[in-house]
Each structure stands twice: as structure tokens, then as C-alpha cells.
Amino acid sequence: MMLLHVPAALPSRADMKRLAAAFVMSNLAIAVAYVALVAPGTWFPRQDPIAWTAQQLTLMRGVGSIVGGELVVSSSGADGTVLVSIESDFRTDQYPAIAWAAIDIPEGADVRLLWRNDVAPSRINTAPVAIESGRPLPLLLVGNPAWIGHAKGIALLVSTRLDKPLHLRGAVAKPMGALAILVDRAREWYAFEAWTGESIEKVVGGADVQDLPLPALVALATSLTIAIWFGWTRLRRGSPAALPGVIVVAFLAAWLVLDARYMFNLARQTAETAARYRGLDWREKHLAAEDGELFEFVEKARAKLPAAPARVFVAAEAHYFRGRAAYYLYPHNVYYDPARDAMPPVERLHSGDYLLIYRRHGAQYDAAARQLRWDGGKPVTAMLELVDRGAALFRIE
Questions:
Q1: Which fold has domain 46-175?
Q2: pLDDT digit string, tens, across residues 83-122
Q3: Strand extents, DSSP E, 160-235
């Protein structure tokens, strides 16, 4: 049996035309198949999506503030939950899906959508929200017996202690029509993905949660384009000698698409960072950052500490704040648990030590008796040196 060797050749103009046509056909086929799979109802509804920004969110439980167009929740409420609500009034049959834009939801957290309707206004309805990589997935409510009438207020409940700040950018009620689905995917791919302090490897390419990530689409479209080109060429009894060159061209085109999206996001991040910090001195830049309140409190606390390095114990629910507080307190001798939310053992505290508590529940202080205790443990004698917005500095006596 003889094997026919076909020498590789550069793609001709006809090959490139067929490749371009194959690209268009592959994307159309993927779009139709995708809509057929995910559209819950009519492909062409008359309603537009309803979007709420971070400024329209009401933080009912937890501690947080608006920073750079996001609601940044630094700690949960006293009951260990975060509750964010939205005033709403829309027909549920016209909006079968709710999507929350949030990141850094702790792993294993019980996350639920809450809502009331005008059919049973006194009842609070719930539905679990799936979480993937710290981000809530869009919730499809078609078939839920409580998703009826008008939605008179919706809310997101996160039942867990936060180990780092939770970022919420808003929510969207979606009619889930064909055009809206495709537009949503395009907006997700080119949505601004702000820097959150994580490694660059955490950049997923667009919105926090995507039903069809752009890298996956590009890989599928590229493979299908090459397959269509090859089949078309064989049907026309053409030579497949240009196949290696076609694969290279298709790969480079896919690479350029993904790189263009990254550069687009990088340019927006550069502009946002410049706008936030332009014209500020070093102190004002710290105050404008996400941990500005912590920096301001530590700055006041440092004024209470002796000039010589002192032993300072740091406690906070979020490991991010524990680490940042320690950084701001250097060159004092700072002690904290980087892995878990834990107060220092009482036996380790000595007279002259300091204890800085930032946004952590469970500590009680009797000012008259100068007695400080936490988590129901043995009290220690301490002087309250500073207190401000959920933070306190104590000197152990």
C-alpha cells in the first residue's frame, strides 16, 4: 500500500475566501445552536432587560460602602450573613432570569435569591443561586411555582462569614430572547473586568460570570471553521495541501481576537486607575483605595503606639484586612493568623501589648472594670486607646 504525500502549500486567494466564508458559517451555526439550547421561551420578546447598578443596591446586613462603582462588603452582619436588596416591580413571566454581578463569594457559601410577589405579599420566596469560582451564575426561574405575578422586591442572601471583601456591581432581570442572549454574550466578553488585587492569571476575559466564555467560543469556532474549509475543499475536489497554512492563519486570527479583548480591558483599567489616583499624594492614594478606612484607622492607631517597636496583635474576620493591617503597622512586632479568623490566646498577651480589632464580632469590653473578653473566653484587663467605626485598639495591662 502506497501513501500519497501531498506537499504543503501556502493558502491561495481562493483558500482564504473559503476560510472567511467558513468562519461566517461556523459562527452562525454556533449562534443558532446556542440560542436553541438556552432560550427559555420566545426568541423575540418585546421587553428590554432591567438593570440595577451598585448605587441602587441596599445593604441590609453587613458592613460596606460604594467604591469605584461597586458595593464592597468588608464583613458580614452579626448573624453571619450578607443581605443586599433591590426595590423592583416587574412581571415575572416576562423576565425568567435574574443575574447578579458579584465576585469573591466565599467557597461553600449558601447563596439564595429572595423575592416577594403581589400574589402572596407576606411570603418571602427563595431559590438557591449556584456559585462558580466565587461568582454567582444567572438563575433561571422558569417553572418555579413562586415566580408568578409581579416581583415586589428582590434580594441576594449570602450566608457565611467573609474571609475577604465581597464586590457587588449590580443585577439584571433578563427576558432571555434570542437577540438579547447574543447581545448579553457580546457585552460579557467586552465588559470591563476591573482589577481586584488578584494575580493576572485570575482575569477571565470580560464579565464576572459568562454562560459562554470567549476563549471557549473562539476555540470552537476555529475548529469548526477549519473543518468546514476542509470539507468544502474536498467537495470541490481541491487539494488539501494548504491545510497546514489554513490552520496557522485560523490560529493567529483567534489569538488576535483574544489579545484584542485583553488590550481593550487593559486600556480601560489604566484609565480607571489614573482617574482614581491622579493628583493625589501618597496618603490620599491610600485613602482612595479599597482598604482606605483600614489605613485611616491604623494611621490613628500608630499615633497611640510607642515610638519603640511594640507587640501588636491583629484580629479581623477577613484575612485580607489582617494582612493589610499588619503591613501598615510595621515596623512594630505584629502577630496575626494569616489562615483563619482567630483571636490571640489570652496566655500569650502580656502587659504592654496592644490588640487591634478591625470589623470582627464577638468582642465585649466593660469600660468601668477595664475588662475585655472575646468569644465567651476568659477576660483580660485592658485600656481602650481608640475606637472608630467597628474598629478598636486596646492596651493590655
A1: Jelly Rolls (2.60.120)
A2: 999 999 999 988 988 999 998 888 789 999 999 999 998 9
A3: 166-174
